[in-house]
Amino acid sequence: MKVFFHALSPTLESLSAVSGSHPSSNSSRLAVETRRLTRVYKTRRETTTALHDVDLEVEQGELFGVLGPNGAGKTTLIKILVTLLLPTSGEAFVDSLDVVRDYKRLRNRIAMVSGGEQAGYGVLKVREQLWMFSQFYGMDSKAARRRIDELLDRLGLAEAGNKEITSLSSGMRQKMNLVRGLMTDPRVLFLDEPTVALDVGAARDVRSEVQRWMAEDPTRTVILTTHYMQEADELCDRVAIVNRGRIVAEGAPRTLKASVDEDVIVDLQLDPGTPLLDRLRAIEGVGAASVREEDGVDRFSLLLADDAVLPRVMTTVEGAGRRVSGLVRRQPTLEDAFVKLVGRSMTEEEAG
Amino acid sequence: MGVAVARQLSGYRAAVLLGWAVSSNWTRPILFIAYSLLRPVSMALILAVMYTVITGNAAATRPYLAFLIIGTAFWSFIQEGVSEFANGILEDRGRYHILKYAYIAPLGFPIYLVGRATSKLASAAASVVIVLLVGAFALHLGINPLQIDYPLLVAACLLAFVSVIAFAITFSTMLLAGRDTNGYGDIIAQFLYLFSGAIFPISVLPGPIAWIASLSPLPYWLELCRRAILHARVYQMFPNMSDGEVLLRLVVATAGTVLLGYILFRFTDRRARRLGHIDMEVNW
């Protein structure tokens, strides 16, 4: 049974506060623990704080999501946890080992797969590259070959196993990289945006395999970074929402969505016209508003305090001369929770 | 302990196979073999022609031709070693995007790097034999396999091998700091070529540079190789030193190189982790 250390409540205040102190008595059961983890990048021109006092606890056996816009600090967190990058200050432990001091021992227990990159030796065949990595992890050669065949088969790559990596599609290459991460049976697997730039089918295969791999052994832990809200919602036991290097909320997706349960969530589709976002945000009772342009129309998402706010919204829209082409009231998503916590959508955050 | 060593060896073997696959896959096997044979032969013949034009192939200068050819033959170890370590690490990061995965694997980064470069070092060993054969049969240098002092040759080469690897690992890890460091391995190899006593004695260098060169193991290694193969029939860089004295200097210089390499590697490795160089986006 998973034990969550933070008493989560659906209120915004408590969601923001849960990233605070952590009892250390249960640390032996933690797959990942960070304490005031901070990472600062300095160049001649600027100083950027990618992670700011991040406190995180992930239980063994959890599929834990780190959710946030591009540039939020997700990849930096993963890099520190897999011993690629040193923190500027603070501490981080994976499987109870310090990522700075015990990094050599830790490397036997972890694996990482990053999405959105063309990683792989093009001149090698798929099985050759996977076998090579199995040897870097000290696996028995025959056992490694069996495991590779099994995983390739499960991911629909059995025939591609004897192809050169250069001939693989992006989706196939990403699946191959997932096999690389899974085959060594790490105690903690780090997946950094594993489905980014994949087509729907390939992304679904990757997600299914991750779930199946987790189900095989309840002690396995996965840390998944993503900026796909739906992916986090579908896969993760718990999620930390990260923005500008800080954890702004943490909890089960259901709990996070519950933070916007009392709001009325409306999607408003408008034909192009006068900018409206700031005027909508200024309406009393509009908790948060975001907009994205899609297929030539503006799609607004509004969090309203109650139904009585909607007429005021419509009046403002009409006053701006904008034509409404669609209006839907819907269930809350993690994106809504993010908007409520941060005040802006992930797309707006990414735009800076 | 035994299991751990066996695991390291299997990882090393995989890295060797990787290095071979990457370095030999750019063309068909027959062309690769032809290239591997012709490159050292043409290098030796070019030097021999230059020597002949300049000296008129006078008998008195024959010991210097032997100096030149043997130095050039063994130089390929350094050329291939230094450049392959550097090219391998940069290629894995910039071209294949795989360095970070190899870096965090339990095998150990230095072992991975050595394995990755081993096939090139092996082809360098083959090129040594080829150039020496050219020296023996085409240039009539008087090389007799039965008269070679093999213990001295092997001892010298082992020590040089250790120091070249120590230097190459450290140097290649340093290159991770840059975004445009492709080709630096070849540049530094050429730089070392001038200061190692491969084609001229280090005593002809300006005083301070000659002193710096004398701290390197390379001149002592090449001197011992020449003496082991041709004894007194080759021009000597250190005529006042016995074989034992040159060997001692090689041992001391190798120990210094390894110690310095270890310290610098620890520093550069940590710096690479601190500054995020291992998976840095680079211009490739």
- Low-pLDDT parts of chain B are none
Overall geometry of chain A comes to: globular
Q: Flag low-confidence runs of chain A.
A: 1-25
Q: What percent of residues of chain B adopt helix (DSSP H or I)? A: over 70%
Rg calculated over all Cα atoms of chain B: 20 Å
Tell me the major beta sheet of chain A.
6 strands, mixed
Number of domains as seen in the coordinates of chain A:
2
What's the alpha carbon Rg of chain A, rounded to whole Å?
A: 22 Å
Tally of helical runs of chain B: 10
Structural class estimated from helices and strands of chain A: alpha/beta
- What is the succession of H and E elements of chain B? HHHHHHHHHH
Cross-sheet strand order for the largest sheet of chain A = 6-7-8-3-9-10
**Overall pLDDT metric of chain A:** 88
Number of domains of chain B: 1
Report the count of strand segments of chain A.
Answer: 14
Written account of the structure:
The complex is a heterodimer of chains A (352) and B (284). Chain A is of the alpha/beta class and 352 residues long. Chain A has two domains: 12-258, P-loop containing nucleotide triphosphate hydrolases (Rossmann fold); 264-331, Alpha-Beta Plaits (2-Layer Sandwich), CATH 3.30.70. Chain A is 34% helix and 28% strand. Chain A has 13 helices and 14 strands. In chain A, a hairpin with a 2-residue loop joins strand 4 and strand 5. In chain A, helix 4 crosses helix 5 (141-154). The longest helix of chain A has 17 residues, at 200-216. Chain B has one domain. The mean pLDDT of chain B is 89.
